[in-house]
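Predict structure. Chain length: 455.
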Amino acid sequence: MRNLLSQKRFVGGIVGLVLLINLALSGSVQAQVALPGVGSLPSGGAVASPPPAAVSLPSPAVGLPPGMASANPGPASVPSAAGMPAPVVTTAGTAALPTGGMATDQLRGRNPAGSAGMSSSNQLPSTAGQQWRTYDLRPYTGYLTQHDQPQQAIVDWVLRETGTDVWFSSPLGILNADRDRLTVYHTQEMHEVIANMVDRFVAGEKDPQVMHLRVMTVGSPSWRSQSHMLMQHVNVDSPGVQAWLLSKENAALVMSQLRQRSDTRQIQAMDLVTHNGQTQKLASTRGRNYVRNIRKAPTGWPPYEPETGEIQEGYQLAISPLLSVDKREIDCVIKAEIDQVDKLVPVDLQLPLPNGQAYRTRIDVPQVVSWRLHERFRWPSDMVLLLSCGVIASPERVGNPLPFLNLNSLTGTTAGRADALMFISYGGRAAQNIGSAPVAPLISTSPNLDTRGRF
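Prediction complete.
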């Protein structure tokens, strides 16, 4: 019996050794050792090859928030194979990157550090003492239920206040926002600027506000001679633009003087309703058709047919007001665009016909006059801001019913030119201004993701 058992054990050992050699050579099945606390493979059936498990190293600061890590914390842990998030531990003077990025790529066998000089560190540099902070936006965004992304206005104003260069140069900075919170990683000085800006949203006005807007055109800039002493001049960076501050009483006197002139036209008189910091848009455009090209006709006769184009002329205005917490000052970003077709220059063409003759036709070349304004202004909320765009293309073209009575050639003026004036003032809450003037509807504008040239 003992010899029989020994032979069976010997044969069984040889069979097992052969099986192990076959498994090692084929590489199709991987053996996994069940460690305590990790789990074992299920029995039966084929086993899929899982990614290597990430072992969480012990750390004295496990379970603490990133800002409360000990002075000498252990190594940062990474996600386990089961998908359970492990605590993120920050080292002294640095901040840990979110898990699942560079560390996960390395655990899966990829080495991004070897491509194009990419670094494999999972710690944020803090050479300038950067700090990771989160700002609660819910006291502001909770009121804007009709807006898809109300937090975008806060990001826009932060970038206007800080500039964009500080986020794309040294030291490293991070700015991210969702509907509930604003996450910032930057220096202490930058955090102070951002905190003041965020306070104007979360601690400021939540109800819809009204901005009184009056757009007028004057045929001659001589209106200044009568109103000069009623206005306080303000410096403007945009070329050709002038700005003044007026008390509400003086603003009423200036508008009364303008209405008495025969060359004054009121283009818009409207109250814009918007939430604090949001952007409201106003536009009045019309299409003007012209013949831009001549192409062969598919029917055969006439042999050529005109190809028409359209130019939108008129004005587009975007205004974004932001009140201070005490409502004594107002910041306002104004973006205005005016396009007008001065005239269509005709060009005669002679196109060949099959019989050797010429087909005469004409195309138009548009002569367009455009004007742009993109400026930020700050003034006391109890005063009126008056902007003069200079003698530019008039937003509204007025046709002369009797062309032979046109005296522009004698007076030296050009048709379609006027001094465009814009009166902007703060009117308080919308509930207190109902029925005072035509009210523009509250429109939720989609954010412009392209920031080039916006700030």
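Summary: Residues 313 and 340 are 5 Å apart (CA to CA).
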